[in-house]
Amino acid sequence: MLDMELHIDPSELQPLGEYDFERKLNVREIREWMQQNWYKSFFVVMAYLIVIFGIQHFMKERRAYNLRAPLTLWSFSLALFSAIGAYRVWKQVAFILSTKGLKQSVCSQSFYVHPVSKLWVFLFVLTKFLELGDTVFIVLRKNKLIFLHWYHHATAMVVSWYGYKEMVAGSGWLTALNFSIHAIMYSYYTVRAAGFQVPRSIAMVITISQMVQMLAYVVMNALIIFWMEDKVCHTTWTVVFLSSVVYISLLVLFCNFFFKTYLSSTKKSKGE
């Protein structure tokens, strides 16, 4: 049953080969739960920061754990999950884009209720909690924990949970892009964790893709602001402001990381 507060064009709900487990998700119950509990994401983030910096302090005088096998399995699982999610959501994005155009593909709320995408958009939001586990591996293995890493995880979780609670525009593109990049990124982590050498250029491409992703999100927010007076393009100024601050700050941080990690080191290696 559709939530009557959502503005849905019935033609966007055409079956796209959905599976039974996708169709069974009760969107109304999920939305009610999110409306009542989204604020708990702040408590999760606080607990996350206490835990990771607590473990980091605990590990100062101890030997790093290897954790190669569990990290390989963890990364492979997230890579596979992200690839499946990307395929399922892109299917709906492509359908709306080809039949309704760019504006509707950005603004449509059908991603929250479509038999295929509704499950994957919700799981996408939940993975922002699951992905906090990445940082646990970093601190237990005593790898360098940079600000960009934990800031990215913390802000993504809060913004994703709040955006889902409001069921705002842009969910289809945001979910599909993020799933796609994570499928590549976690595949890279899987190969690295398994002990194989990966060309430096692959890591550069992944960072560039993350920069492009954040730029795409900024552009998408600009379009949503331009279209938000249209009843079809639902959002709130709170979501627009919070997400824009996060996307722009992450774009700056990724650009800074790329410059320091790849460009500066390249110049040094050439003796410049």
**Radius of gyration over all CA atoms, rounded:** 20 Å
* Helix/strand class: mainly alpha
Q: For the terminal residues, how far apart are their CA atoms?
A: 64 Å
> Largest sheet, described in full?
none
> What is the molecular shape?
globular
Helix content: over 70%
Integer tally of domains? 1
Number of helices: 11
Contiguous low-pLDDT stretches (5 residues minimum) are: none
The tally of strands reads 0
Q: Return the string of H and E elements.
A: HHHHHHHHHHH
Mean pLDDT: 90
What kind of oligomer do you see?
A: single chain
What percentage of amino acids are in beta strands?
under 5%
Task: List key phrases describing it.
272 residues, mainly alpha, 0% strand
Brief account:
The protein has 272 residues and is mainly alpha-helical. It contains 11 helices and no strands.
Polypeptide structure, described:
Helices cover 73% and strands 0% of the residues. The mean pLDDT is 90. It is mainly alpha-helical. The protein has one domain. Helix 3 runs parallel beside helix 7 (133-140), helix 3 packs antiparallel against helix 8 and helix 6 crosses helix 9 (171-193). It contains eleven helices and no strands.
